[in-house]
Specification:
A hairpin with a 5-residue loop joins strand 1 and strand 2. Helix 8 runs antiparallel to helix 11, helix 14 packs parallel to helix 25 and helix 23 runs antiparallel to helix 24. With 600 residues, the protein is an all-alpha fold. The strands form three sheets. Strands 4-6-5 form a three-stranded mixed β-sheet, with helices on both faces. It contains 25 helices and seven strands. 64% of the residues lie in helices and 3% in strands. The structure holds zinc ion (ZN). The site of zinc ion (ZN) has 4 residues, from helix 17.
Length: 600
């Protein structure tokens, strides 16, 4: 592992672009502190006049702008060296300031909710500068029919801490109390099985190790079915109660309302994926053939289809691959990304001591859209750079073409631009590569992506929906009921040919996302939208690209569904998912063809 100080600065991000000196950081900190201190005075005037509202929202936006910058600067420093005391202290101070800011501005939402729409419309005319906050005000006001009296809201808020404990209990229980025991690894040595090393163990080529991990893990989970069911039922009932308090028809409606989406979109996704299950069944059949197995068990589905590909890409080559891929997006996209990657210090490239793992894109209005990588020269890493560059360019366009407070795009569209880049890169390399080994490896990655993001997440989304529906009908969510519901889905999604080991019925117990209130479907809708966009880019070329760039420029100025419509993608149309399915099917067909021609 490299020492950070021995890495050439051209491979490290340039955070002096945010604050050149510690004094500059401190000056911003003090300014934010001063606005936070004077903010409570707005409580008296925010609802009195257009000017009062505008002043409060301006100060609110300023605080948010500065604190985001302080936060980005602190956490980027911290993430490259967690042992740095100065970085730790800075992060702590910014966190306290953010808490103070949110306490000082507690009244903004509730007070705006008290205004009636006519008054606000009148105020837009009196004070045209208020227009810039139209979307923010709209988002607050749309909560009106789901909000109780001040007193009741306070009461509900005060219970939040105590009620939110189901997922904490599950996390503590699954991650620290549960002991799964030891299994023998491929060298015959004992290894401790944990929830974290379980999936990596299932990816091992050695089948005995995979089977042992599967049996060992579920033997433990199976003993605690009643406990897990009680925790999950508690969580589901809590969501249902909150939905009722907010006068929603169901917990699904309450959750999708927050995303500015509807249950129809959720249900359409499930319907479309359901209609295409034979495609994933065919994928498992391919897997069985390539692994040379008589029967494909559930502990085989993560096993690698092929040995790791030898191709290596230096970081400079990765940059060129990504830039070549995004040429289609036109001058502004291409030249901005070129500068960002080559001159403006967006990327922190290599792993080093104390640096956090993984990869992300981060930043805020007023900073560069930075990228953290842990680059190791594989094609996967090139793909990660394309992915994170997608996020960063989405942020770049959102921030450049919107005021800071209108620039944040929602989770519902957050993985679209990144996935578009990833898919375009894979498709381009498939066409160009002369090596069958490399093609097989790219296709394997592509198929894994569709399996994991489209099918698995939709199966989870269906489980979540069914469990909530049962509870809404008043049925108890016992271990028996949940196991049965889960097994039904396993049978449907894995198809007739995969051997359904009975312990898989307990898998729902180990999925923490079931406590995230209808979150996972967004992974599946994002990859569907991204596939549909890629298809149009590849068939219509430049005639279409302009629409896609307009979508990137939307930022948070429109609802997620409206902004996708600008890219020509109508998420209420069930056929959007079909594009992703066709791409998946085509990857399976290409893999099979190359693989069979090699076998001859
Ligand atoms: Zn991402």
């Amino acid at each position: 592992m490299l020492d950070r100080k021995n890495i050439d600065p051209k491979y490290k991000w340039d955070l002096t672009k945010i604050y050149a000196t510690e004094e500059a950081f401190k000056a911003d900190y003090d300014e934010a502190q001063a606005i936070v201190n004077r903010f409570p005075a707005h409580e008296k005037t925010i609802c009195n006049s257009a000017k009062g509202l505008l002043d409060a929202l301006n100060d609110n936006a300023k605080i948010e702008y500065i604190i985001s910058k302080l936060w980005v600067y602190s956490h980027l420093h911290f993430d490259t060296d967690a042992s740095n005391n100065q970085a730790q202290a800075r992060s702590g101070r910014v966190r306290s300031l953010a808490i103070a800011a949110s306490a000082a501005g507690w009244f903004v939402g509730p007070y705006i909710l008290r205004l009636d729409e006519k008054t606000v419309e009148q105020w837009y005319k009196e004070e045209p500068a208020l227009e810039t906050y139209r979307r923010l005000i709209f988002k607050i006001m749309r909560d009106k029919s789901h909000t109780l009296s001040d007193e009741c809201e306070k009461l509900v808020a005060s219970m939040g801490d105590a009620l939110g404990s189901h997922s904490n209990i599950r996390g503590i229980f699954a991650n620290s109390d549960l002991q799964f025991g030891k299994i023998r690894d491929e060298n015959g040595k004992y290894m401790q099985l944990t929830d974290t090393n379980y999936v990596p163990t299932l990816m091992k080529p050695n089948r005995n190790v995979r089977r042992a991990a599967f049996n060992c893990l579920y033997k433990t989970y199976g003993q605690f079915g009643n406990t897990f069911a009680t925790m999950y039922e508690g969580y589901v009932k809590e969501r249902i109660t909150f939905a009722k308090i907010g006068k929603f028809k169901s917990s699904l409606e309450a959750s999708t309302f927050r995303d500015e989406v509807t249950p129809v979109i959720y249900n359409n996704l499930i319907k479309s994926v359901r209609a295409s299950l034979p495609v994933i069944h065919d994928y498992y059949e391919l897997k069985r053939q390539v692994l040379g197995l008589d029967k494909l068990h559930l502990y085989d589905v993560y096993a690698p289809l092929i040995e790791e590909c030898e191709s290596k890409y230096s970081y400079e080559e990765a940059v060129e691959e990504v830039l070549e891929t995004v040429k289609i997006f036109g001058e502004e996209y291409h030249s901005t990304l070129t500068e960002g990657l080559k001159e403006r210090g967006w990327v922190d490239v290599y792993p080093s001591k104390g640096k956090r793992g993984g990869a992300y894109s981060s930043g805020c209005p007023g900073t560069e859209p930075y990228i953290l990588l842990n680059y190791t020269e594989t094609f996967d890493d090139v793909s990660t750079l394309a992915h994170e560059a997608g996020h960063s360019m989405h942020s770049y366009f959102s921030r450049k073409y919107n005021e800071p407070h209108n620039s944040d795009y929602t989770i519902f569209v957050a993985e679209v631009a990144s996935t578009v880049n990833e898919l375009l890169l894979a498709h381009r390399k498939l066409e160009e590569s002369k090596s069958d080994a490399e093609k097989l490896s790219i296709l394997d990655g592509l198929m894994e992506t569709y399996k994991g993001t489209l099918y698995r997440q939709t199966m989870f989304a269906e489980f979540e929906r069914n469990a909530h529906r049962l509870a809404e009908k008043g049925e108890p969510l016992t271990a028996e009921v949940l196991n049965k519901e889960y097994m039904k889905l396993i049978k449907a999604y894995f198809g007739p040919k995969v051997w359904k080991d009975k312990q898989i019925a307990y898998e729902w117990m180990r999925i923490p996302h079931f406590y995230s209130n209808f979150y996972v479907y967004k992974y599946a809708t994002c990859i569907s939208a991204a596939s549909a966009i890629v298809k149009r880019i590849e068939t219509e070329g430049e005639a279409y690209v302009g629409k896609y760039i307009e979508f990137l420029k939307c930022g948070g100025s429109k609802s997620p569904l409206e902004s996708l419509l600008i890219a020509g993608i109508d998420m209420s149309d069930p056929t959007v998912v079909d594009g992703a399915i066709e791409d998946f099917a085509s990857a399976i067909a290409q893999f099979r063809e190359i693989y069979n021609s090699q076998a001859k």
